[in-house]
Write a structure and sequence with these properties.
heterodimer, A: alpha+beta, 2 domains, B: alpha+beta, eight-stranded antiparallel beta sheet, three-stranded antiparallel beta sheet, 19 strands, elongated
Chain lengths: ~260, ~250
């Protein structure tokens, strides 16, 4: 059979994944703390029909050989951890990390997950939790009588209690950092889990040792750029179309070959 | 008469290979750093039948040759600090399990050990061994010097990317995964003294879709022409064998 059929099919499958990724990025254009993904492709193995330098029929050495490639495959989907824009919310429990770092939250199964989405709220016991109810680590409890909450750029959380004008410190938010954040495993719900590729979490106070600082009253918007995704969508769709044309050409050539014998 | 059949069949086979090459180019239209393969047909020269070396009408078409289209791809801005593109000639050197390979695809990342690696985890080589990245604030200048810039302290040089150029066209063989290895006997590539590196950008594939489409059409029609030739020869042979004998 014509190899081009399968070669073109690998291109079409790859572009399908590219469109899937663009669609997910676009669907999360308004997701707090979302980081866009990108698919990287690479070429598949080559069949070398003839090595360069092989003597030709004319007695000379061929300056080039014959290599026929087998198409493409996605090598990875990579998350791009660039900073998203800040959106002012004035909600005192909305936090944004300016720079490197992740918030740590405790999942129901006892494991720690990491997130850039800093829209926290209080649960029934006054603990700071994320929208799924996972408690921020280290745990911070806002007393019932608190009338005001302040979070410093260094992560120190202080509250002003009713009838007392001096703010009281109730805890410090710690951030986590990874050697290779692109190697984190996305588990949905704006959460990431460490993997062997990401390395283990290094924790520290905001603003220290290269960690980002915190800003209160803002959330980090998605870093998806709609125009960029639209361009990627066009590229993906046209590349898919090009693949389908190659399949059609291969099909027509097969038909011609079959018609050799009438 | 019969040799004409073989000539036409060899032409069909060659154009089939050409379609395979075109399909591979089109499949890699979005592969970073990809260089298209150019396919050229070569006549095999004289047929073994004529011993006096005269031009023969009964030659055939050899499977053809592929050469790398070394034209640059468009530099696509990504903003990702570990995306590197080479503007102009040169290839990155990477350390694979089977020795040093070369690539134009600069979609690198940081390994857990802190090395600059390809998506396969192959370490990118500098002039003094693999490039180890600083903890944060990676900055790569136009000459490929990797340094750490945290903003608070002076930039610290961490290494110099090794960029090589091949000795000649056809001196590199594609091995897949965006990698090239030197062809046997072609000699090792030499280091490029003053490369131009762009940080935060990727070189797009240099496949020209319009040209590939036109070539694909031409390939199909050439294939068809050979097919018609075979049919015509077949018909002539049929008449020679059937109709002549009837008289």
């Amino acid at each position: 059979m014509i190899r081009a059929l399968f070669t073109a099919a690998t291109g079409m499958t790859a572009q399908q994944l590219s469109i899937d990724t663009v669609a997910n990025n676009l669907a999360n254009v308004n997701t707090t703390g979302f980081k866009r993904s990108r698919v990287d492709f690479q070429d598949l193995l080559y069949q070398t029909h003839r090595m360069p330098g092989t003597p030709t029929a004319q007695g000379a050495d061929a300056p080039t050989g014959t290599q026929v490639g087998g198409g493409t495959r996605p090598s990875s989907t990579q998350r791009i951890f660039t900073q998203g824009d800040f959106q002012r919310t004035d909600n005192p429990l909305d936090l944004v990390i300016e720079g490197d770092g992740f918030f740590q939250v405790l999942r129901g199964d006892g494991s720690t997950a990491y997130t850039r989405a800093g829209s926290f709220r209080k649960d029934g016991n006054g603990r700071l939790v994320n929208p799924d109810g996972f408690a921020l680590q280290p745990e911070i409890t806002i007393p019932n009588q608190a009338i005001d909450v302040q979070v410093g750029t260094d992560g120190v959380v202080s509250v002003t209690l009713a009838g007392n004008n001096t703010p009281q410190q109730v805890g410090t938010i710690e951030l986590a950092r990874f050697v290779n954040p692109a190697g984190l495993n996305s588990i949905g719900r704006n959460l990431y889990l460490p993997t062997a590729a990401s390395g283990t979490a290094l924790t520290g106070a905001p603003g220290s040792q290269g960690f980002g600082t915190l800003s209160q009253g803002y959330v980090e918007m998605s870093n998806v750029k709609v125009v960029e995704e639209m361009v990627n969508l066009i590229i993906g769709q046209r590349a898919y179309e090009a693949g389908s044309k190659a399949v059609q050409s291969a099909d027509e050539m097969l038909q011609l070959a079959n018609n050799l014998r009438r | 008469m019969i040799s004409g059949l073989y000539t036409a069949a060899s032409g069909m086979a060659a154009f089939q290979t050409k379609l395979d090459v075109l399909a591979n180019n089109l499949a890699n239209v979005d592969t970073p750093g990809f260089k298209a393969d150019l396919f050229t047909l070569v006549p095999s020269g004289t047929s073994p039948l004529d011993t006096d070396g005269a031009a023969s009408p009964t030659g055939s078409v050899e499977p053809g040759q592929t050469a790398l289209d070394l034209s640059p791809g468009v530099l696509k801005h990504t903003g990702n600090p570990l995306d590197l593109a080479i503007a102009g000639p040169g290839l990155f050197a990477v350390e694979t399990g089977q020795g040093v390979a070369y690539t134009r695809a600069g979609n690198f990342s940081r390994s857990v050990e802190g090395f600059l690696v390809t998506p396969e985890g192959f370490r990118v080589l500098g002039t003094n061994g693999p490039i180890r990245l600083p903890e944060q604030g990676v900055s790569v200048d136009a000459r490929g010097q990797v340094s750490a810039s945290t903003g608070t302290e002076a930039a610290r040089t961490e290494g110099q990317l090794r960029i090589v150029v091949g000795p000649a066209l056809g001196s590199l063989t594609k091995v897949g995964a965006n990698l090239y290895v030197p062809t046997d006997g072609a000699g090792a590539p030499r280091d490029l003294a003053e490369p131009t590196i762009v940080q935060g950008a990727l070189e797009a594939s240099n496949v020209n879709v319009v040209r590939s489409m036109v070539e694909m059409l031409a390939t199909m029609r050439s294939f068809e022409a050979y097919q018609k030739t075979i049919q015509a020869i077949d018909q002539t042979a049929g008449q020679a064998a059937g109709d002549l004998g009837r008289a």
